[in-house]
Design a protein that fits this description.
80 residues; mainly beta; 5 strands
């Protein structure tokens, strides 16, 4: 989303595995949604988004969070 909570379709969302340091990416859909499946529950991850050269803050998914599904909204200030 941008800072006014409008969706950003086509933004690239990155997921970095804290163990292997590998990075996966996903292009957000028309509703600004993204999904990474089959993540290890024993690994920490970092997730962030980029759109038009702008980047969101990096969020962490902790291995101590035992939820099967985690929802993270990423905001990109597109006006800078």
């Amino acid at each position: 989303m941008d800072k006014s909570d409008a969706v950003l379709p086509g933004a690239v969302v990155y997921l970095k595995d804290g163990h292997s340091l590998s990075v996966k990416s996903y292009i957000s859909n028309d509703q600004g949604g993204y999904r990474f499946g089959q993540l290890s529950q024993n690994t920490d991850y970092e997730v962030w988004a980029e759109s038009n050269g702008k980047k969101s803050a990096v969020k962490t998914i902790s291995s101590f969070d035992n939820k099967n599904q985690v929802v993270i909204d990423l905001k990109i200030d597109t006006e800078k």
